[in-house]
Amino acid sequence: MLRAGMDIGVDLGTANVLVYVKGKGIVLHEPSVVAMDNNSGKVIAVGSEARRMLGRTPGNIVATRPMRDGVIADYDVTEKMLKYFISKAGGKKHFWRPRVMICIPSGVTGVEERAVKQAALQAGARKAFVIEEPLAAALGAGLDISQPTGTMVVDIGGGTTDVAVLSLGGIVQSCSLRVGGDKFDEAIVRYVRRELNLAIGERTAEEIKMEIGSAYLEPGQEKSIEIRGRHLVRGLPVAVEITNTQVYDAVRENLVAVVGAVKEVLETTPPELAADIVEKGIVLTGGGALLSGLDSLLSRETGLVVHISEDPLSCVARGTGRALSMIHVLEEGKQKKRKQEYKRKQVAQF
Known about the structure:
Helix content: 40-55%
CATH architecture of the largest domain: 2-Layer Sandwich
Order of helices and strands: EEEEEHEEEHEHEHEEEHEHEEHHEHEHH
């Protein structure tokens, strides 16, 4: 008999890892960064402590993100990171071997899915399950996806953007982009380098995005902040001003990609479910939902009402925890999806 609190849900994100423990809620929220000693291969720090080392380490220590674009980029480091977080979530329970539910982007391959499961098992899980991010996000936002009605979720994480229409506990239409918060940060770094002749790091770019980043510019709402970096011509540290208009120009290409994915899913959604979405609107989740004006941009481009979920950062983590109590419903949804794909292939052959 499984004791209460022995199930955990993990939002294994590109930027952050959130751990949900059954009966306790979210017990851990830390950056998915690992600092390692190159010479010995020993883990120096994980999470917040390791993030503080990004771009500030000596030659023998490397602080890296083992997750890229929502999937595992470095299997061994990911396994060590998961082991640390599962152990930390368990506290003093030294022999704690929980059932673990981990979220994955909706567009991952079978190989990538197996890698996530295997990493969780190697990290100490008794059983490992995976759930697609849009499903987890919808559950975490408190949406009822078990009914035969259409629900649309746009989950913008650090590495991916997942857009999906859900019904009867499964995904009807979906699109997964390798575009997320990290791509916004990279775009800001490139823009500042190209237009302001200034070299800045990803942490500074993230701070710019959070302070004055905007997806929808309102007239007369000009903002600016001072940023510091190394001047590319003089080679000296300098401080310059950057405006929200400049930040918008930097991330505009990525915003166009996100809007395009939303429109693509809407165009292929069955008419009956599309009618439900017109009535209920679109739900935004993930850290990207906090980008100022993103809801206004999507509303203007689609003509639909856009809602930002309560505490969008933790939606997926809460959803993975809830999913452990309804595995049978999710399995039925997966079976339906496989049957639909099989039928489509059969029709395509004729």
